[in-house]
Amino acid sequence: MPAIHDSGTATALPWAVAFIAAIAALAIGISVPTVLTMAICIALMARLYRDSTDLLDFRAAFFLAVFVFIAVPAATIDTWFHAGNYYWVSRLIRNLTISQPEVQIAETLVLCGTAVVAVPIWLQQPVVRTLESSARAVLPRIWLFYAGFVSASLLLLLIQYGSLMKIVLFIISPTMRADTAARSFSGLSGMLLFFSAVSAYYAAQRLRSRGARLLLFLPVMLLVLPAGNRGSLLSIGLIAATAAFALTPARPLLWTLTAALLLPPVASGLFRLRRLAVISDAGEFSIGALYSDFAGESLMLPTLAYALKALREGIVDFAYGMDLLLFPLWYVPRLIWPGKPMPLDFRLNSAMGLNEGDVFGTPISIFGGLYFNFTLWGYIPMCAALGALLAVLYSRLEHDRLLKVLLLTFVVDLVRVGDISRELTTVSLALVAAFVLRAFATRDELGPAGVA
Prior knowledge:
- The protein is mostly helical.
- Helix content is 68%, strand content 3%.
- Helix 3 (58-82) packs across helix 11 (252-279) and helix 9 (210-224) runs antiparallel to helix 10.
- The N and C termini lie far apart (51 Å).
């Protein structure tokens, strides 16, 4: 006799667990907006991963990024206030001090934006994709492209920093990264690194061993370290993982949530080990301390709260879409045009007097970017448009894992940074690299007559 499954119990159990988790979160001081934001992110990821086990689903990546880089740090800051503290002070950005009401305003803005982005994606019909790449063979000439782009990236680093010893010093000493001469090459070096990463992806298709595939990305990742650009490091790491692994686990939601909850303490732990190696003082190794460190590093919500306060006080003003209009200008290297406008986060940092005048990026997330560019009246429509765009792109995307991972890294960076024009420039250059190398270093598996 076949076993009888209680489908009602199976359906009710996740909701019961979620309800208990929400009550526990509220009990330890996490705010209602942040709990609701987390709930929306988990619900959307559960729905999307139910229809497909594709970890390269950039729609789900949007909500994963909101959960990890905004909601988790917000929850940590909420517990800080719940412990009786009146202000939260950043240890990374000087002068960044915020109160609980200011944080709650930013959390509410994030909640509204997340909910609106979720609507068109939730209403989208299930998109079931097979995960095979396009039938293209990678030609041996890809090795020339790979060697050429990696060598050019290394040569540019030597021009930027002067010697290999200085490159090493930039890796181990973050304070040296304020050098303006090095920054003037950042756009060109970023472009070369993307071409290097894409050529490594295609070259990996000629190798059978996963270990050998991953080793191809090691030089590219080492070339990113001097700039300390964690976004680029994450992007190249994701491209490497896509080249080496199928990324189709049986329980994608479980894997994703586990990674989301482990990333903060692991990242903070690695930072503390690096600190121990440099100054022989790693600080406290506890779960609470590691999550607090991650909140101190992932400053999207605190910076957004501070920027919204500055907006109310008349210190800064809306950008009125200027960042979107500046999109074509970002292709001009700063080396050629030193007076090129700074990104939104840099302009806000300067206007708000953070870091005592030092040039520093203070990302306010995609929600801050949309709010400052389109005001309150345009915020909700633009969030809805973003959700619809993600839904349409995923439904029409061809079966190309590289394009999927490039769009996934774009979505994650867009959520974190929020500078629309700069992120559009970055993803467009990455897509150009993909299409150029696919045109010159690959070919169809079958010829025009259908003969192999």
